[in-house]
Design a protein that fits this description.
Largest sheet: 2 strands, antiparallel
Strand order of the largest sheet: 1-2
Length: about 280
């Protein structure tokens, strides 16, 4: 198997560059020695396997650790002020919507800053894919994703009526706290951050091993990061829907690039959020 983690040396300028690149980024000379697998990277934006791995780890590990530290510090402060764990738990429960919003929004903002630092000069060029009119195909593809996942969710609700997974319930607490914040987080910030971390980062890194590994890996990871518990059967019941979304977005990214997957992700989330807000408003009327 061809090793796509190994850099190549440009015969023109003598500098190393990513072996999947079509040309040397230093002098612009064409990469004449590319193998067949390398051509499958032409429609996606590669930033080197080390930075791709760091992007993937940014949300999977580093931010999770920061969130855990924040939650631990918050509990310690509440225990010091309120005196007992029951009172602290009651305060958290009463303010859960606000806490969930600011924690989720703040974490994603930190991830975005982290991504900008990791990508550096590659961050702005990443957005050039939006110049390709084909990225608008992400709109119907996002709608198709939503239809399929909605059908599956309806099927899942028949198996366990009245049960919702933790991710959906958590988003609803954000909606109760701030509908505008809910829209900004779920439709704008989260899709951008997740496409950078899971498609530009994780999927591209795993694709260097093998495309099948990339699709299965990103599906499994994308499904699991939307789970609140690995022991709750309700979470596992909804897992396939999220895993499908991860695989579908990876396919769109593989075909249309970063712009296409971002638009598909925003379309999927945007329609879902708007329908949820409309239902939420009708219930409160």
């Amino acid at each position: 198997m061809v090793n796509l983690f190994k850099s190549k040396v440009c015969p023109q300028c003598g500098k190393k560059f990513d072996s999947v690149k079509g040309s040397c980024p230093h002098c612009g000379s064409k990469n004449e020695s590319r193998d067949k697998r390398s051509f499958s990277f032409d429609r996606i934006y590669t930033v080197g396997h080390i930075r791709e791995l760091l992007l993937a780890l940014g949300q999977l590990v580093f931010i999770k650790v920061l969130v855990y530290i924040f939650e631990s510090v918050l509990v310690s402060i509440l225990l010091a002020k309120l005196g007992d764990r029951e009172s602290a738990s009651a305060w958290i429960q009463a303010n859960y919507g606000a806490l969930n919003f600011w924690l989720s929004f703040g974490a994603d903002l930190l991830i975005l800053v982290y991504a900008i630092i990791i990508l550096r000069r590659d961050f702005l060029p990443l957005w050039k894919s939006f110049k390709n009119p084909k990225v608008l195909l992400g709109i119907p593809l996002g709608i198709a994703m939503l239809i399929i996942t909605t059908i599956y969710s309806s099927f899942a609700s028949q198996i366990m009526p009245g049960e919702s997974n933790g991710n959906s319930l958590g988003l609803l607490t954000i909606l109760d706290y701030s509908p505008a914040g809910y829209f900004l987080f779920a439709v704008i910030l989260a899709p951008i951050v997740e496409e950078i971390m899971y498609r530009v980062g994780l999927f591209t890194f795993l694709k260097r091993i093998h495309p099948v590994v990339a699709y299965i890996g990103v599906g499994l990871v994308f499904g699991m990061i939307h789970m609140q518990s690995f022991t709750d059967p309700v979470e596992w019941l909804h897992f396939p829907g999220y895993a499908f979304g991860g695989i579908a977005l990876a396919a769109i990214y593989d075909w249309l690039g970063f712009g296409g997957s971002v638009i598909a992700h925003m379309t999927n989330n945007g329609i879902s959020v708007m329908l949820t807000i409309i239902y939420w408003m009708s219930e409160r009327a």
